[in-house]
Amino acid sequence: MTTTTIDNPIHGWIRRALFYWIFFEIVSTQVLFLLVLAGLDFEPIPMALAITTIAPLVLTTWRLWVERSRMHDFRLNPYSSWALASVLLFCFWAGSYFLVGVLTDPTRVRILPATLDQFIPLSAPFVFIYIAVYPLFVLPFFYIRDRAVLHRLEIGYIVMLLISYTVFLTMPVAFDRPTLPPSPPDCSYWTLMLVYGQDKPWNCLPSTHCGVALLAALALLETDRRLGIWGIVTALVIGVSTLYTKQHYLVDALAGFVLAFVTWTTLRWIWKHQQS
Length: 276
Fold this sequence. Notes:
single chain, mainly alpha
C-alpha cells in the first residue's frame, strides 16, 4: 500500500508569505536604525506598529503579487514541520537562556577587564539592529528547501546553544552596563530600556546573539548566494550592535562567531563524510 503526499499549492503561499514577512521585519529594523542614527526620532508605539505591521504587510503583499505564478516552487511538504521546528527551537533558545540566567549565582559572576571595550561608546540606536536577531533566527526555516541544510541548522542551533549554556553556568561573565537616563530621551533609549529590563547583565561569553545570527546566515548562504551575503552582513552588524548597546564584550562576540562557524563547518564535514 502506497501513501500519496498531497501537494497543496497553498503551502507555497503560506511559506512564502511568512518568509517575506520575517525578511521585511528585519529590513524595517535596519532602515529604522539608519533613520534614528541620522537624527530622526519617533514615538515608540507608532514606531513599533509601523515596523511590525504596516511596512512588512505592504511589502509582503507586493512580493506575493509579483511572484503569484511561482508559489508552487516554494512549497515544502509536510509544511507544518518547518514551522513547528522554528517555534520549538526559538523557545529552546529563549527559554533556556532565561532559565540559565535565573539559575546563575550572582556572587559567582565575574566582570572582564574592558581593555578595548572602553573605546566603544554606548549608542542606543544600535538596539534596533540588536533585536533583528530574533526574526533572523527563524528566517531560514521559511526559505530553505534542502532538508539536509535545515537538519544541520537545527542540530547546529542545539549544539551551539548547549555549549554556550554550559559555559554560562560554569563560568558566568557579566557586563557592567552603563546607567540609562530615568526618562528615555528618544525611541532608541526607550527600546534599549526594554532590553535591559528583560535581560540580566550576565550570560555574556560566548554571545548566543552572534552565534545564532551567523548560523542562520551560513545556512542561507549555502542555499542562496545573494540572500546569504545579506545574511552574513546582517549577522556581522548584529555582532557590532552587541558592543554598542553594551550587552557584550568584544571577546563575547568573537567567541560567539567562532563557535557558530566551527559548529557549522563540523556539521558540514560530518554530513559530507556520511554520504561518501
